[in-house]
Each structure stands twice: as C-alpha cells, then as structure tokens.
Amino acid sequence: MQMRISSLLPFLALAAAIFAEEPWIRSLEKAGIVIETRKVSGSDYKEFRATMRVNASLQKSLAVMQDFNGYKSWMKDCKESRRLVELSPSSGIVYSLQSTPWPISEREAVVRYSYQKTAKPATALIWLAAAPDALPPTPGKVRIAKLKGYWRFRELDAGHTEVIYSMHSEPGGSLPGWAAAGMVAHLPFETLKKLREVLER
C-alpha cells in the first residue's frame, strides 16, 4: 500500500497545482481576438492567453513561426529577432529585443523553444522558456530573466487554424502600472492582429 501511495504522489502534486491556479478572466474581446488574464502566485505580473482563428493553413502558420528574423514584422514592439542556435530540428534558442517608450529601458529576451506535433487533431505546440544565461547581456538593455509560455496552432480544416498565444514573464527592472497592464492586454492583442494580417495575405 505504501508503494502505491508513493507512486501517486507526483500525480497528486500536479493535480493540486492545476486546481490551485487562478481562473482566467476575459479582459478584452475585439476583432475576433479574445484576451484572458489571470494572477500568478508569487508574481506582480499577470499571465495572458490570447485566442483567434485565422484563414490560413496549419502549414503556413508554422512557416511564419519558423521565420525567426521575420518576427519583428508582426510581433508588437519587436525591434530585433533572430535564432541564436538550432539545438535540434524541433528546438533551439532565439533572441528578441523589444522597444519601449521613453524612459523605460528596452527589454531583451533569450528564449528556448521546443516544438511538439500531433496528427489527430492536427496540432502544433511551441513551448517557450527563458534561457537568460545562453547569451551575455547587452549593456543598456534589461534582460528578461523569467518567461514561460506557448503558442498552439490547431487545424480546424484545410484552410482555417485556431491560434492560442499564452505567456507569463517577469520583465525585470521597474515598470509603471500602465506599461505592466499593456503587457497582458494591448501587446498580445496587437501581436495577434498583425500575425493574422501576415497569415491571411
């Protein structure tokens, strides 16, 4: 009996963590894009989840995501983006630099990504996690040390895809309240809006 209980402990811990999470609260719904946010235990910053549907195939969606240098054409406030290293055909490390309004210091992120795909339903998950020590910090920039999230693309049919973008990060330094609020509402909304334009061209 003791062995059985011990074997269940990891699953019980996971279940407790899931049920302990705060509920999602819808903060914005506009132009076919839904933004939800929730509090994260131990953090001053909320997690967001942004959802939309696009008139584009899953294959095209993934092609855009794999164009790392092109992120700045659709990701809100992205000033620079590039892949630093390819660790495997489905994983690697990318760098991005985010412009900010004066007098806030620009933020840079070094992020490890990892792809997971399923056939039925046709879905692609891109897991994201901060890898701040993979590159020396840039003088004058604030390195984002904590970040985790994902992109999920689910094929609805041959020409339509559901897109979910979820993220929680600790931007580092100090941010005024309006900037912190924009991180979890305005930024993901504008990112998905522009991404949809790119995908539906």
Automatic annotation (TrEMBL):
One of its GO terms (cellular component) is cytoplasm. Residues 21-201 form the START domain. InterPro entries: START-like_dom_sf, START_dom_prot, START_lipid-bd_dom, START_lipid_transfer. One of its GO terms (molecular function) is lipid binding. Transmembrane segments: none annotated. PROSITE patterns: START. PANTHER family: PHOSPHATIDYLCHOLINE TRANSFER PROTEIN, START DOMAIN-CONTAINING PROTEIN. This is Lipid-binding START domain protein. The lineage of its organism: Bacteria, Pseudomonadati, Spirochaetota, Spirochaetia, Leptospirales.
